[in-house]
């Protein structure tokens, strides 16, 4: 059941992160693409209209020699577009998106572990308080026993609370589960990175032989 739940969570997280990643990449890419579209569509149409009018009217309109440069695609525009496009392609690979999902789940397990650890410490302190009073009562003289008994009664320390025991045991189980899950995810992520690195290295070597 836990394995099925984890698989479902990973699949859902993969889908959500895929949407988030795609949306972010499209925004960057759309900005760069819009600049290119502006030049090759609106600006070009305006430039052609200006040139056609100038050709039709002869020398009535003097065109500045630098006019054409105002409508060029610049190296900066092309670089910006290509960079955004390359990033969008890289962030669309299954390996990249899977890595994002795994990292998210690894961080989640670290949070779960930390919370369980705090819960275990809290429960242990409550249990330890009862044990400490019991040990002191055992070795105290009569007058001190009476004082300690009153203190234990007033502060709910006459017995170990079953809720504290359940909290302590559940926290221990959660720490074990989250630790094992985190280690499993990290191992799986390492295998993906290793296989991906080997795949690209092999392809690069094959391409160099051609």
List keywords for this structure.
210 residues; 0% strand; disordered C terminus
Q: Show unreliable segments.
A: 204-210
Number of domains: 2
Main sheet characteristics: none
Give the class from helix and strand content and strand pairing: mainly alpha
The average pLDDT score comes to: 79
Tell me the β content.
under 5%
- What level of helicity do the residues show? over 70%
Order of helices and strands: HHHHH
- Helix run count: 5
* End-to-end distance: 50 Å
- What's the total count of β strands? 0
Large-scale geometry: rod-shaped
Give an overview in words.
The protein is mainly α and 210 residues long. It folds into two domains: 1-92; 94-210. 85% of the residues lie in helices and 0% in strands. The protein has five helices and no strands. The chain has helices spanning 2-57, 75-90, 94-139, 142-154, 162-209. The longest helix is centred in the N-terminal third of the chain and has 56 residues, at 2-57.
List the helices and strands and how they pair.
Elements: H1 2-57, H2 75-90, H3 94-139, H4 142-154, H5 162-209
Helix pairs in contact: 1-2, 1-3, 3-4, 3-5
Write a compact overview of the structure shown:
With 210 residues, the protein is mainly α.
